[in-house]
Amino acid sequence: MPHQIINKTFTPDIQTHTIQGSTPDVQVSFNKINLSNGTNVLVSRVQGPDVEGHELPKIAKDYAPYVITDNVKKVKKTLLQRAKDGEITKHMEYVAIRESMKYGDDMAFTPDDVLKEVASGHAVIPSNVNHEECEPMIIGKKFSVKVNANIGASSLSSNFEEEIKKLRLSLKFGADTVMDLSTGIDNLGGLRNAILRASPVPIGTVPVYEALDRAHGDASLLTWELFRDTVIDQAKQGVDYFTIHAGLLQDLLPHAAKRTLGIVSRGGSIMASAMMRNNSENLAYEHFDELIDICATYDVALSLGDGLRPGCISDACDKAQYGELENIGKLAKRCYDAGVSCFIEGPGHVPMDKVYENQELQEKFCNKAPFYTLGPLVTDIAPGYDHITSAIGGSMIASFGTAMLCYVTPSEHLALPEENDVKVGLITYKLAAHAADLAKGLPGAKLRDDAMALARADFRWYDQFALSLDPQNAYSVWAKQMPDECDKSHEPAFCSMCGPRFCPIRLNRKLQAMYNAK
Fold it and tell me: SS3 letters for 286-348?
């Protein structure tokens, strides 16, 4: 149906469009935005086949060879191992279609292109064999910049239903992965299972949060056995990637102590507390080979966490941060050699003149494993607006090669994000990611921008709303100061900024007519 406005609610003309791969079980869905001039634009769809479903179809059930032991699926070989062996999997074909067509470019990426990037360790397809509902996606420098959304209940706020709402909202506005950071509630496993069964995108966690809950909040009781069992339980459920802060070692603690804000990472602070209380080395580092074995069993990717990321500009780029990055690079090599996919987290608060340096050093130390960044936040003075301070740095570092951005919401540094925070954070970060895709010259990235420019030139207002990241907001801003009768017309040739007498676009039509330019 055409775009509609009913009771001040704008409904764009969007249809689900599916492209089939070489076999019927490879079905890649997109949103097709139908425009009033007879053209359309394909955009990536991450909502799954049922936007309200509590349990989604198990589309990836047979994407990986597996065995069942004690009623739990375990992979025979990880995706990285299969890529190293030169095997093109259904995951890789799915990703090639999705990356090529998300911007409407006819197979700009082939499955073989995907294979090479995964095999080199420069790209990751997070896909736990037990998350059968997960639609394959890829994180890598050569592909579109991805955005992660954090959700999670705490002892002070939120509940199961609110977190599922946040998940759906995250998917609606384009989150490519979602991290469940829930802590301090009863039945953490039940909430995580509900999120996994309802999510078509990869789900990440920070296992040490639950491990500390199991230790009754006492870091001195945090043992390797407790941590290991937590990791295994989450892997069995289907978590696709774990953030593990294994590069934060004892010799870096004195450098962190000299900082203004010390250690601001929640996971990093838990690890450091356990190390200090027990006078021991980082338990994840000491048992890293065992962690790798667990991840290989279920094909869980490791997100090597930046426990010493700077929490303010004055702490940026110090010995603590860069020393941890060097350690992480060594751990990344151990992951790769063992056939476990990994990506690298960073860098927190960093001024604009140091953003490129952070990307450059990450690639140098970590053999170009994908970089996954929080921001960076380029200033400290905007509580309530840190989605903007971080998106500035995020768009910069993504244009330099960062593969995935972790969104920051307006509540950063202040509170647990609520639903509207999730929406605003995601839209801001999808903008940052798209700006980077344009800067990278990604095939087809400009098609949606070109369609928007043509709609503006033709005064096709409804098409402009439909092409925006938040159609309802675009319509509401436009309609607020326009005459009511404009709702009934698709093409009023002005907006409230200049009015009908002083519209430059109307002048441009005369210019084009004079010079026969159109």
Answer: HCHHHHHHHHHHHCCEEEECCCCCCCCHHHCCCHHHHHHHHHHHHHHHHHHHCCCCEEEEEEE
